[in-house]
Design brief:
The chain has helices spanning 20-30, 44-52, 121-137, 161-171, 223-235, 284-297, 320-333, 348-351, 377-395, and strands spanning 58-64, 67-75, 80-86, 106-108, 111-113, 144-150, 177-180, 192-194, 196-197, 199-208, 212-213, 250-258, 265-266, 269-278, 303-311, 314-315, 338-340, 357-360, 374-376. It is α+β, with helices and mostly antiparallel strands. The strands form six sheets. It has a six-stranded mixed sheet with strand order 1-2-6-3-7-18, with helices on both faces. Strands 12-14-10-15 form a four-stranded antiparallel sheet. Strand 4 and strand 5 form a beta hairpin.
């Protein structure tokens, strides 16, 4: 059950210190016996629903195939802040390599072990406890507070937050602010705040040739030879120079496959897979145009080209959310954060185009997706205090 409201004397702007009971509630809610490997939510969102409904939160489910999305909101109007998270996790890998069973977590040396404790069920737990504490202390708060969750962040991400964002756009409804719980911290909790993210683009290029005997070059067209100068030119491209918050855009070759396995047979085709991480200086259309130019330059005309744009880059300009989050990190955690757009992509890329100010702040990312994923237990407590302080700064 939710904690009882504090006495009026505690209803102050500064967040109350978390008790050991708060930390226990967070740990119990994190991941125990709920193997929510993407896109299976495994009942995590229902558990949260049972906690927030008694506090006056409205709940709306957006079910898309195997994916479960849910939005919890309380109140109406501005200011409006939605926390954004995901309850799905990546597969655990071989369980015998874990110190503890990955979905039956335990503690060791002050850290909580288990799949998802850092990415990102620990962050979701901190969000929920912060919302509970804020509502208990401010039952008549103005504006709207919310929590948006998906079970399709670690997977293909086609039925998750992107679908909810499309519906919000259709309705003409969006939050003023969105705080994403992706594990952003590098060395110590709060040392990094993401103010945007680079885009991610996949290219699959298949260059066709004529298979033949290696001894008779006049009878074949070797696609490996065709693509070699193109590939050299591709990896040496300077796409842009970046800026103060975005590093320069770049590409990495992920795979190069050709051949029959026989040493005296040239391949009929070669397949190239490339991933681009791009900033605003190189949007997807500009990269696609550059690739077309390179193909013409190197006289490659028999090919198949496939593009998959996972997300365009986004950046939120400084606003009230940035001011509140930076101040909360400095006051609660005693850290002066670095503001950047590093890392991969996040679901914030779907919310930012609605006109919402989007930031990311959460736990350490040093062990995410690894065997023995873990997070300092004390960080769970301090994170929910920081989230609560952000709420107080925006609403009180």
């Amino acid at each position: 059950p939710p904690p009882p409201p504090p006495p009026p004397s505690l209803m102050t702007r500064r967040p109350p210190r978390s008790t050991p009971a708060d930390c226990r509630r967070q740990r119990q809610m994190c991941i125990r016996d709920r193997p929510s490997v993407t896109p299976d939510d495994a009942g995590c969102q229902q558990l949260i629903c049972e906690r927030l409904l008694p506090l006056g939160f409205d709940v709306e489910w957006f079910l898309c195939g195997e994916v479960s999305n849910v939005l919890f909101t309380r109140g109406r109007g501005s200011p409006s802040l939605w926390f954004l998270g995901h309850t799905d996790v990546v597969p655990s890998g071989p369980e015998e390599l874990w110190t503890f069973l990955p979905f039956h977590p335990d503690e060791k040396d002050g850290e909580l072990y288990g799949r998802g404790v850092a990415d990102m069920k620990g962050g979701v737990a901190a969000m929920v406890v912060a919302l509970e504490s804020f509502v208990a202390a401010n039952p008549d708060h103005g504006g709207e507070v919310g929590l948006l969750l998906t079970s399709d962040e670690e997977g293909v991400a086609i039925d998750g937050i992107t679908r909810v964002a499309e519906e919000m756009k259709r309705r003409g409804h969006r939050p003023d602010f969105c705080l994403v719980g992706e594990p952003s911290s590098q060395v110590t909790l709060g040392d990094t705040i993401r103010v945007g993210r680079r885009g991610s683009i996949y290219l699959k290029l298949t260059v066709n040739g004529i298979q033949g005997h290696a001894a008779f070059p006049e009878n074949l067209d070797n696609p490996v030879h065709r693509i070699a100068p193109f590939l050299t030119d591709l990896v040496n491209q300077e796409w842009d120079q970046g800026d103060a918050e975005f590093p320069a855009s770049h590409c990495q070759v992920s795979s190069l496959r050709a051949g029959t396995g026989a040493g005296n047979v040239t391949p009929a085709n070669i397949e190239l897979l490339v991933n681009f991480r791009n900033g605003p200086g190189s949007p997807a259309r500009a990269i696609q145009a550059r690739i077309d130019e390179l193909l013409i330059k190197h006289d490659i005309d028999d090919y198949d080209l496939e593009w998959q744009i996972m997300g365009e880059p986004f950046r939120s300009e400084p606003g009230k959310l940035r001011e509140a989050v930076v101040s909360a990190v400095e006051d609660v955690l005693g850290v002066y954060p670095d503001l950047n757009t590093g890392g991969g992509t996040s679901d914030g890329r779907y919310i930012a185009p609605l006109g919402t100010e989007v930031l990311e702040l959460c736990l350490l990312n040093t062990s995410i997706h690894q065997i023995d994923e873990r997070t300092p237990i004390h960080d769970l407590d301090r994170l929910q205090e920081t989230y609560l302080d952000v709420l107080n700064r925006l609403y009180l």
